[in-house]
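so my prof wants the structure for this chain in the tokens format not the other one, which i didnt know existed until like an hour ago. anyway here's the sequence
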Amino acid sequence: MPDKEIQRKWQRAEQKLCIDFGIPSERLHLIDTIKTLFAKYVEENNLSDNASIALYYRLSFFSILMTVRTLNTMDMQLPEFRLNDIMPIYTDSKRISAEAEDCVILEKCIANINDAIDALIKDYQ
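here's what i got, hopefully its the right format
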């Protein structure tokens, strides 16, 4: 992430997820993909701090769901996994997004990610 403002927003979002949910970025699979998407959306849409945090939470939640789904398809079931355990990340992402002045911009630019998340959540219910 070359831009210092994007890097600052990344670090702030990363720290907030760790503080709020005890999930450091090192524990997230697909972290390079999350970084790439985060930088792309923040830069292209000039996202505010709140929208950037909401985006980071959403991408992290999506990463967790995709990891669990991948393991399940490889017959590596995670019996201890409960969707309800991670839903607060998604709920907080939606709340923080709603509080951002650029909420509509964020939600529009990540509509495909939201659709994929909704489909994965439906699969777990």
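also thought this was worth mentioning. The CA atoms of residues 98 and 104 lie 8 Å apart.
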